[in-house]
Each structure stands twice: as C-alpha cells, then as structure tokens.
Design brief:
Blueprint: E1 28-33, H1 39-53, E2 57-62, H2 71-85, H3 87-99, H4 105-113, H5 115-121, E3 128-131, H6 134-145, E4 153-156, E5 173-176, H7 179-187, E6 193-195, H8 209-218, E7 227-231, H9 240-250, E8 254-258, H10 263-271, E9 276-278, H11 284-290, E10 293-296, H12 301-309, E11 313-316, H13 322-333, E12 337-339, H14 345-354, H15 356-368, H16 377-387, H17 405-426, H18 432-440, E13 453-455
Parallel strand pairs: 1-2, 1-3, 3-4, 4-5, 5-6, 7-8, 7-10, 8-9, 10-11, 11-12
Antiparallel strand pairs: 2-13
Helix pairs in contact: 2-3, 2-17, 4-17, 8-11, 12-15, 14-15
C-alpha cells in the first residue's frame, strides 16, 4: 500500500511539505495511539481535538490495527486476561522489561513488522507525528532512526510514571505532564523532554454547589452524604469488590463505583449491597462533580481528569505494573496520596474530603493546568511542526533500502515468534481451547483491517 500525490513530483508518507507551506495553524498531524484500555486513546482524542481547533488536519491511527495478521486484537485480549486472571504474571513481565530497559526481543520483532504498515498508513503531506502509546513510539522512533520518516516525532507521556519502553531513541521530543515523569524519561535516556502539562477534555472542570447538586440528582446519589468515586479503568480490573466493601464498611464515604465495560462486575457489586454501581458512564465529568474524593487503582487519565475537576485522589489496592509505579509517582509529585495500609483508609479519606490534605492536593492538581496557552502540549506540537527538529545525530544513520524478500520473510518469522510469546504470556489466563481460538481467529492473512485510519474524534467500530 502506498500513497502518491497527483502532482508530477510524488508526496511520500513522512515527507515534510515545503517550508513555505508549514504556516501556523495549517498542516497535517498524525496521532498514533492504541486501544489498550481507554487512557491512551483518551489523550489522543483530546490532542486531536485541540489540534483540529487550531486549524490542523489531524489523522488518528490505532497501532493495534496495524500489526500484522491482525495480531493487535490478540495482544489486547491477552493483556486484558493477564490483568484479570493472572496479575502476578503481568507484574513479572512489567518488572523484567523495566529492568531490561524496555521490551524484549520478541516485542522488538513484533514492532519491527509494523513499521512498513505504519509508514504506509500516514497520509501524504503528514508533517508531524505524535504518539500516545509506548509501542507506537518505538515504531516511529525506529523509522526516524532508519531515515524512512523525515518529519518530527513527538511522544506525549500519558502516565505519571515512565516505563523505559516509552523512551524510543529516534523520537525527537517527549512531552510530560509534570516534572516527575519528565525526570523519569530523562533517566531512561530521553534527550529532549519538555514539561507541558496534562491534556483532558474541557468538560472536566470545577463546578459550584448548584452543579454538584444537579449531578447528584442526575445519578440518583445521596444529596448530602460524602461520596467516594471508585474507578477501575475501562475494563473494571483489580480488587474492585474488596475495595467497594471496605469503603462502605469504613464509614468515611458512600462508595460510588464505575465498572467501565465490565457489566458483570456491576451486577456483582449490586448483589453485594453496593447500591451505586454503574457500568459504562458517558458523562464522567458530572459524576466527578457529584463526588468528594476519587479512589483509583491505575493512575492514568482518570486521575488527571479528577485533578482538573478539583477532586482529591487516593491510590489504593493498585493493579500490578503501571498501577503501582503511577501511584508512587503521583505520591512523589504530591498530587495523590497512596494508601498502602487498609487501616489508614478511613482517616485518609476524611482528610481528603474535608481536611488540609484535600486542600493541598486540590491546589497541586490545579497547578498542573496552570500552563499558559502557549505552554500547553498542543502549542508545543505546533511549534515543533512549524520549525521542525534538527536531526542531530540521526543524520548519520544511513537510510535502509526498501524491504526485500528476505526482510519480508524475517517479518513473517517475527510474527510467528510473537504468536508464541502471546500464547506463553496468556496461557495463565486462557484455557487451552480458548487460547487457540483467540489466536487463530486473528490470523487473517489479508491486508489492513478496515478503518485502520480514522479522523479526529471517537472511533466507530
């Protein structure tokens, strides 16, 4: 698959326009994410919305759709099953790759097979690319190192903690929400890291007492009792039932639980006597306006949205891997408290709801968004887009020749190795027949799945 302009001189993917065309508020930016949970896609959607409002043409791509043989969905399902059924295995994988400074050889082989597909999926005239997912950053960084992508690549770090996989040598600029993740990115080898604050949907903002009352009425919540909003990501993972019961029994606040797409969990909670248990909620800003404190276990985009609403955040019984490292980073930044002992739950929640700890955390959360319009992430993307980024030592890297049959065979082999790795990693979560079915039904040898590129906004499946 290739893209060519109708002009006599072709415009190839990843080739910048003439300098005169790169004017402020015009140009084409691609945002590459991955539908692994909702945080990466949420950040990508908001970046795309802001860039579109500034006059840019924005294309969004999902890296999972661009993996060979539709393996992306197998990776997604295996990751989900690991978190739900074998969290200890996910913790081992996360810790081992963290010590190794990034993904292992199998992951690198898989990402190499996506390079040609990602390059071909970039529309003609793309003159900057932004990644909100570590695997996408690796693919794009390698394309920059190889000399095959001639436009700037930026990574927006969606998490407060930075796994080494986030830092790809070929990426030009890493954007961080706070100095804590910025320092971690530099320690992992990132050369150009800029603190530019978080990106959240503008609906996440403080509200007054009237708005708070309306939000509680809309969701059928108590009008005067303190409310603890418990979230567990779009998949509803972690010991949610245990935490909900502990919140109820400690007496500090009435639990209000959002289970994401895990409707079975919501039903179990209601059977446990947790009255306010919801599945997928379309209007999370209003639910945050109704609450007094957020209790979370992953530390992703939802925490940033809570900060924007002025809602204090507690990390509690976190999921393995990034849940634990995000809790530590948020605590280091003073943005959220990490409750490690269940005996402290009641006292800390009361302090967050109506005490000095909550007031300090609200101030810290609001400070994250105190950047001027010229200092926000999309303003930085626009500056990099206009000026470009000097290749520095990238200029010395020779450009690779087009793919040969031998390299194609290598890619096929890498895909086969990846299938084995996914099977090994997911074996603890799948029953044997289910695992075989999950992998085999993804091995469609045809080309791109439909809709692998979609415009800014929500993706329709």
């Amino acid at each position: 698959m290739s893209h060519r302009a109708s002009a006599p001189r072709p415009t190839l993917p990843g080739t910048p326009p003439p300098q005169s065309a790169a004017t402020p508020g015009s140009g084409r930016v691609a945002v590459v994410s991955a539908s692994v949970g909702a945080g990466h896609d949420g950040a990508a959607a908001e970046l795309a919305r802001r860039l579109t409002a500034q006059g840019y043409a924005v294309d969004r791509l999902d890296l999972l759709d661009l993996l060979p043989a539709h393996l992306g969905r197998t990776v997604q399902e295996g990751y989900h099953r690991l978190l739900v059924r074998a969290p200890w295995a996910y913790q081992r994988i996360y810790s081992s790759t963290e010590r190794a400074g990034g993904g292992g050889p199998v992951a690198r082989a898989l990402l190499r097979t996506a390079q040609d597909r990602v390059l071909s999926a970039l529309p003609p005239g793309t003159d900057a690319v932004v990644s909100t997912y570590p695997g996408a950053s690796r693919v794009l960084g390698n394309l920059r190192l190889d000399g095959r992508l001639a436009v700037p690549v930026l990574t927006y770090l969606t998490d407060f903690s930075v796994h080494p996989l986030w830092v790809a040598p070929g990426v030009d600029v890493h954007l961080a929400a706070h100095s804590v993740p910025a320092a971690q990115a530099r320690a992992a080898g990132a050369r150009d890291v800029r603190v530019r604050g978080p990106v959240t949907d503008p609906r996440f903002r403080p509200c007054d007492a009237l708005g708070r009352g309306r939000a509680r009425e809309r969701f059928g919540l108590p009008s005067h009792a303190p409310l603890a909003l418990l979230v567990a990501g779009s998949w509803g993972v972690g010991p949610v039932r245990t935490v909900a019961r502990e919140l109820r029994d400690c007496g500090a606040a009435v639990p209000v639980v959002v289970c994401g797409r895990n409707e079975a969990l919501a039903e179990q909670l209601r059977a446990d006597g947790i009255e306010h248990a919801f599945g997928w909620v379309d209007d999370m800003p209003s639910l945050m306006h109704a609450a007094d404190v957020l209790v979370q276990n992953a530390g992703g985009l939802t925490s940033l949205e809570a900060f924007a609403c002025g809602l204090p955040v507690a990390s509690y019984r976190c999921i393995p891997g990034h849940g634990l490292t995000n809790a530590a980073a948020l605590a280091e930044a003073g943005a959220a408290v990490w409750i490690r002992d269940p005996a402290d739950l009641k006292a800390v929640l009361r302090d967050l709801i109506d005490g000095p700890l909550g007031r300090r955390q609200r101030a810290t959360g609001f400070a994250l968004f105190a950047q001027s319009p010229d200092g926000c992430p999309t303003a930085e993307i626009a500056r990099v887009h206009r000026s470009g980024v000097l290749d520095r030592d990238l200029r010395s890297v020779p450009q690779r020749h087009p793919r040969t049959r031998r390299l194609a065979a290598t890619a096929v082999l890498a895909s086969a190795v990846c299938v084995g790795a996914v099977a090994t990693g997911a074996a603890a979560a799948y029953d044997g027949p289910d695992l075989v079915h999950a992998i085999s039904r993804r091995l469609d040898p045809d080309g791109f799945p439909p809709h692998h590129t979609y415009p800014s906004g929500d993706r329709h499946s």
